[in-house]
């Protein structure tokens, strides 16, 4: 059986601002053909990571490859294979939609105007409309349509649903699902909330303060994390140092222990310490994400 290729691979990637590391060291791989949700709060480094992957800004250490192409050695090749839909959606308000798409097509020999036109019809965006007359949601859809028309092997979406209402967000995710069915394509969706991608993603990663805190198969991540509520444990007991415990907080007499992949061992340790477990609950991706952010900031719920 052949080993799946990586759509994206980074190894000890770093970016610095003077002497201060603002991203990394970061090692991460995204299997080709997967849809990944990249979660992180504002300022976590999601946009910087995307720009590094395209060679728009230079890394200060480590390496990165997109579809097997070294970013530092061949950034132009990478940009032909990977497309970014940026968070900043400022457009020339006087330009018409059809002129905007024609302008983009002039730069890319493989541009498929029929792909963009089909999506405009699907999303009821008039080719004659001025860009300044489009609402934020329509602008996002237009940029996605223009990106898909380039037939990329890797699509990077920087917080695409921030300006969309729930209906528009669902329509966008539906179009991405249809596009993914057309070939071996990789999508990374940067977001601050898992709702932005959870319906279509098969993998997730969490980036906090420039560091990758979590990455893996979405179903496996959900299955591996548990929240255990225990009573009867001494307040001075250093629960956070227990093996497998990712985060601890207290609510009244209850100590809440967030565990990763070792719930049975943690439950046994609680009982050995004289405590009683009154709840062992599964965690969804939002709970896992909030745990990692709170652990970084030192805040409890």
What are the main properties of this structure?
4-stranded antiparallel β-sheet; alpha/beta; 301 residues; Alpha-Beta Plaits; Rossmann fold; elongated; 6-stranded mixed β-sheet
Describe the structure.
With 301 residues, this protein is an alpha/beta fold. It has 2 domains: 6-209, P-loop containing nucleotide triphosphate hydrolases (Rossmann fold); 221-297, Alpha-Beta Plaits. Helices cover 31% and strands 31% of the residues. The chain contains 9 helices and 14 strands. The chain has helices at 46-53, 75-81, 97-105, 113-122, 136-148, 166-180, 218-224, 263-272, 285-297, and strands at 6-17, 20-31, 35-39, 61-66, 69-70, 82-85, 154-158, 186-191, 203-208, 211-217, 225-231, 245-251, 254-260, 276-282. The strands form 3 sheets. The chain has a 6-stranded mixed sheet, with helices on both faces. It has a 4-stranded antiparallel sheet with strand order 2-1-4-5, covered by helices on one side. Helix 4 runs antiparallel to helix 5 (136-148). The protein is elongated.
Give the proportion of residues in helices.
25-40%
For the largest sheet, list the strands in their spatial order.
6-7-8-3-9-10
Alpha-carbon distance between the two ends? 46 Å
The CATH topology name of the largest domain reads Rossmann fold
Please count the helical segments.
Answer: 9
CATH homologous superfamily of the largest domain - what is it? P-loop containing nucleotide triphosphate hydrolases
Largest sheet entry? 6 strands, mixed
């Amino acid at each position: 059986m052949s080993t799946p290729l990586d759509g994206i691979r980074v190894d000890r990637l770093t970016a610095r601002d003077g002497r201060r590391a603002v991203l990394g060291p970061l090692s991460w791989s995204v299997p080709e053909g997967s849809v990944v949700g990249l979660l992180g709060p504002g300022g976590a480094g999601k946009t910087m990571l995307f720009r590094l992957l395209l060679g728009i800004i230079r890394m200060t250490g480590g390496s990165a490859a997109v579809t097997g192409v070294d970013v530092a050695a061949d950034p132009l090749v990478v940009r032909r294979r990977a497309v970014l839909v940026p968070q900043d959606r400022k457009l020339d308000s006087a330009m018409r939609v059809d002129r905007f798409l024609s302008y983009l097509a002039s730069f890319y020999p493989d541009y498929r105007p029929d792909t963009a036109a089909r999506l405009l019809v699907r999303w009821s965006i008039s080719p004659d409309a001025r860009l300044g007359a489009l609402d934020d949601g329509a602008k996002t859809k237009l940029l996605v349509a223009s990106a898909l028309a380039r037939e990329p092997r890797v699509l990077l979406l920087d917080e695409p649903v921030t300006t969309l209402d729930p209906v528009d967000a669902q329509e966008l995710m539906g179009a991405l699902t249809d596009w993914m069915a057309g070939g071996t394509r990789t999508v990374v969706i940067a977001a601050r909330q898992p709702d932005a991608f959870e319906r279509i993603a098969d993998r997730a990663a969490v980036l906090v303060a420039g560091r990758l805190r979590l990455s893996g198969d979405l179903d496996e991540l959900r299955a591996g994390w548990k929240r255990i509520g225990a009573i009867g444990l001494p307040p001075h007991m250093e629960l956070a140092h227990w093996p497998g415990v990712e985060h601890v907080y207290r609510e009244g007499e209850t100590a809440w222990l967030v565990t990763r992949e070792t719930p049975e061992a943690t439950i046994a340790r609680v009982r050995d310490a004289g405590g009683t477990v009154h709840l062992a609950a599964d965690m969804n991706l939002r709970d896992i994400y909030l745990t990692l952010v709170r652990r970084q900031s030192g805040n409890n719920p």
